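Predict both folds.
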Amino acid sequence: MASSLTKDSVSPGTPGSEKTFFGHPRGLATLFMTEMWERFSYYGMRALLPLYLVAPGGLGLSAGTATAIYSVYLSLVYLLTMPGGWFGDRVWGPRKTVAVAGGIIMLGHLTLALPSSGTFYAGLGLVAIGSGLLKANISTMVGQLYQGPDDPRRDGGFTVFYMGINLGAFAAPLIIGTIGENVNWHLGFALAAVGMGLGVVQFLLGSRHLDARSSVVPKPLSAEERSSTLRKAALWAGVAFVAYAVLGITGTYTLNWVLVPLTLLGVIVPVMVIARIKRDKDLDRAEQSKMSAYIWFFVAAAIFWMIYDQGGSTLSIFAASSAENSVLGWDFPVSWYQSVNPVLIMALAPVFAWIWLALNRRGKEPSTIVKFASGLVLVGVSFFLFLAPLSIAEGGHKAAALWLVAIYFTQTVGELLLSPVGLSVTTKMAPAKYASQMMGVWFLAVTAGDATTGLLSIAGVDLNRTGIVAMEATLAVLAGVAVWMYRKRVKSLMGDVR
């Protein structure tokens, strides 16, 4: 994408004070492109992953096992944003952490490109670790480009940055998906590595335009803390090595020995983090009240993401086996469905922003709680829609592609109602003591939702069965209705937050 760099008068000392990127600090172009290429590699691999896992020419796994692996992988990406943020704050600083993360992601994709099931899982782990490190720190650097939270360009800068995410997510399935499905799976994974490599190169070349604070470690570990952290890490790594070595030697090792602990971790850690913050005696009464309200949003978000993220697993696997993937007689790769959401986000986000502004001027903009409840209901409705193509497939016919497009459309509208609101309410309701950690807590809702899907798959639940889909849809709708019914109670707990 060609960048728009123009002369602009900004205050001296602002990063990129001579040239701007669409009126924003020039460093935004560097971060925009880094995020675009990272999302290109991530969403390209994600579009191929469940299809490769079930394909006869891939790993040939069952749909349940494939969904479990996919769900555990997604939950790990978001779980690792918390230690990723910790590394940026305490060890390397945001800039170095992002550079190292990009290298780890590229190495992970190259490992995935090797034609071996053993290296495949190692590659997935590397991509998850790198994504967690990068995701937690790149947004911090975007914020550092501006002169504090009151800089009038700040919100617009994040909007431009968000477009980079969706551009990468849109292009990846069309390019990487096509190569992976139609030419060679491993060549598709290698193409994801090329994308991330381009992102790392331009980040290193353009990092001179970033704010100087991006190289600073805000709260470096003391020598004692560093030693203690290394000892604990070595201890847990040693325990894991011994445990899995014993399983391997005794011949009792199976894939579930990895999947089950990681899935349980994805459920237990979010609960522990929320409980720890809620029990903190340093929080005053108002902060405690806001955390009680936030639990409603957190649980609702976990249910939302549990269903929403099945768009890349349950729906994708269904499309591969039971959908007529063609338009007007023209066949297209199954992975292309994953481009529907980002293109709809780019088309609908400005429309929603305009609607909220217009309603706000008239004093009729829905409250945060109503938007959240509506998003939950819509993701439930999307799975009620899913019942139609499931019934068509059970009758021995192929479901039309437009059924799946309708499902993704409904989920996207729900995302636009819930996700931006969730990010906003997280920052507004964060206790002062946990201001820098609460964004990681929000990502843990995604972890909890995906881990729950993983647990269901590991337990042998067929997520493509009509009864299970109907149950998930009903759960989401009921959760949305419950949030709406108790809106006055939640609103009172939120205090001065609106």
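Second protein follows, with its predicted structure tokens after the sequence.
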Amino acid sequence: MSQSPTSTGDLLAATVPMVRTLNLEFEETGAERAVLRLPDQPAYHNHVGGPHAGAMFTLAESASGAIVLAAFGDQLGRATPLAVRSEIAYKKLAMGSVTATAELGRPAAEILAELDAGQRPEFPVRVSITREDGAETGEMTIWWTLRPNK
């Protein structure tokens, strides 16, 4: 299932208050890739004037949620997507606006096959965080599951 950036963004903004709080912008959302942007906002700066680590974490986690929703939103009647763990690495100083690009770490068809077999699949979503000059400032992996609804 592929949703437009507006519909996915609207859905996440309606259900996840932090998306609204940080004014995240949805540039691309699809089952293969999601791209979200955190505008430069002084209210969310750290001690050196760049985006706070917590804001960058939320940006990356939200990008992962957007791709999961785009890839598996048509399964919500039978399974609930949940983040189960994550790891983030801050690699370079981020200044200005930053962008998170998320990609599924396993083919969606493989994940759905596990769900169809009665399993609770887990899968990684890899996210790259970049600043305006294209330099990667961070990377994150979020492990998601599709928990079957009872």
